Automatic annotation (TrEMBL):
Residue span, Mannitol dehydrogenase N-terminal domain: 1-195
Protein's organism: Fodinisporobacter ferrooxydans
InterPro entries documented for this protein: 6-PGluconate_DH-like_C_sf, 6PGD_dom2, Mannitol_1_phos_5_DH, Mannitol_DH, Mannitol_DH_C, Mannitol_DH_CS, Mannitol_DH_N, NAD(P)-bd_dom_sf
Family: Belongs to the mannitol dehydrogenase family.
NCBIfam families the record matches: PRK02318.1-2, PRK02318.1-3, PRK02318.2-1, PRK02318.2-5
EC number of this enzyme: 1.1.1.17
Protein name: Mannitol-1-phosphate 5-dehydrogenase
UniProt domain Mannitol dehydrogenase C-terminal: residue ranges: 202-376
Matching Gene3D superfamilies: N-(1-d-carboxylethyl)-l-norvaline Dehydrogenase, domain 2, NAD(P)-binding Rossmann-like Domain
Transmembrane segments: none
């Protein structure tokens, strides 16, 4: 069985590649980082280290990699694969679509075996987005055949994997916890037997619960933490004021999710508490700049901050703490983050009001706009108080 996985990065090696390998797949990574590709091919194995007291290690053996820029080779692999997965980042999905489209076109000509392509990205409907990019590139003549042979089930993935600072370039340190939930209703053919993956018939509650709890909490901690000068998530969440803001944001999203999906309030509170504990993991050193990376993506209307805040207001919940997270994202001026720099440029050129509306889609006469600007004043003041103490 062959698994083609796009993105041999942190989640690729430390989570999806590991589970596929354990499930018996011959894992072929596809990556544009040539050094990474050649390192994988020179050793054909790597180590996953659990970030906890036990520091358990796992050897992932028999893996290989190919260059993502070699469209012909990637297409050849896809034509014969038993599963395709991705962990490249939501903004990269459009760039991997040409190789997938080429592989699918070859495949439907030569065999009838169904294939499922699962995007494991932090976005709602990642596989559906990828499907749209791929379909844009398919010949009309094969689309009908592809519809019955190639599935694009959406998925929610959860495992914190920080940026790696190890001597061994392939070693990846991960938190022990993981969750991989896949939309079974969109699978074509038999369900892939992957130990640790959960199949559900309706993914929406699972992806919203994950994105609006883990990632919302993470983003609020990162953006407010950055303002206070903290380097890691653990340092930031240990600060009483940041803990209170993040917990407040999780209460807002929690109230929303409980009302929207009928989750048991007690169970949801336990879920949120467990997540806050994961942020406190002293064995993970997770930079606030990694967690806050790509603020334009994170501020977009369907992502972890604005979507739950808008939905909360529609359910009669006032999203003050989510408003703090959104506000802090507009003062996230990390020089190495091109999206952060673009936002700062926009503020300089067009002013704050236009910039907020441009990136979040929140009209300037909306209640959420008022909350965000009020929280921005508060963040600036509390940051000054923090530094003057
Ligand atoms: N790190 C986490 O804690 C975590 C957890 C859950 C989900 N995710 C999601 O997983 C995805 C990947 O995140 P990550 O932390 O592993 O990032 P990463 O940067 O460690 O890995 C991404 C990899 O994709 C490769 N890549 C970039 N463009 C490519 C292309 N065109 N073709 C093939 N490979 C390409 C990069 O070279 C890199 O090796 C993101 O969507 C992220 O939101 C991350
Ligand atoms: O990967 P991003 O940029 O969407 O979000 C940053 C983190 O919140 C994220 O990577 C988490 O660590 C992960 O989603 C945990 O499952």
């Amino acid at each position: 069985m062959i698994a083609v996985h796009f993105g041999a990065g942190n989640i690729g090696r430390g989570f999806i590649g590991m589970l596929l390998n354990k499930a018996g797949y011959d894992v072929c990574f596809v990556d544009v980082n040539k050094d990474l590709v050649s390192e994988i091919n020179s050793r054909n194995e790597y180590t996953v280290l659990f970030a906890d007291e036990g520091k358990e290690t796992f050897q992932i053996r028999g893996v290989r990699a190919i260059d993502g820029q070699d469209l012909d080779e990637v297409a050849r692999e896809i034509a014969h694969a038993d599963i395709v997965t991705t962990a490249v980042g939501p903004n990269i999905l459009k760039f991997i679509a040409p190789a997938i489209a080429k592989g699918i076109q070859q495949r439907v000509k030569s065999q009838k075996q169904p294939l499922n392509i699962i995007a494991c990205e932090n976005t709602i409907g990642g596989s559906t987005q990828l499907k749209a990019y791929v379909y844009d590139l398919l010949d009309e003549s094969v689309k009908k055949q592809v519809e019955s042979m190639i599935g694009f089930p959406d998925a929610a993935v959860d495992r914190i994997v920080p940026l790696q600072k190890n001597e061994d370039p392939l070693l990846v340190m991960v938190e022990p916890f993981f969750e991989w939930v896949i939309d079974q209703s969109k699978i074509i053919g038999s369900i892939p037997a992957i130990e640790g993956a959960t199949y559900v018939n309706d993914l929406t509650p699972f992806i919203e619960r994950k994105l609006f709890t883990v990632n919302t909490g993470h983003a609020v901690t990162a953006y407010v933490g950055y303002q206070y000068g903290f380097q890691t998530i653990e340092q930031a969440i240990t600060n009483e004021s940041i803990y209170r803001i993040t917990k407040g944001a999780l209460q807002e999203t929690g109230n929303l999710l409980v009302r929207k999906y009928g989750f048991d309030p007690q169970q949801h509170e336990e879920y949120s508490a467990k997540i806050l504990k994961r942020f406190l993991n002293p064995f993970l050193s997770d930079d606030v700049t990694r967690v806050g990376r790509s603020p334009i993506r994170k501020l977009s209307p369907n992502d972890r901050l604005v979507s739950p805040a808008m939905q909360a207001l529609n359910h009669g919940i006032v999203p003050t703490h989510l408003g703090s997270g959104i506000a802090a994202a507009f003062v996230f001026d990390h020089p190495n983050d091109p999206e952060a720099m673009e936002i700062q440029e926009s503020i300089k050129e067009n002013g704050l009001t236009k910039t907020i509306t441009r990136y979040t889609g929140i009209p300037d006469d909306h209640e959420l706009f008022r909350i965000v600007t009020k929280q921005l004043d508060w963040i600036k003041k509390s940051r000054n108080d923090f530094y003057n103490h």
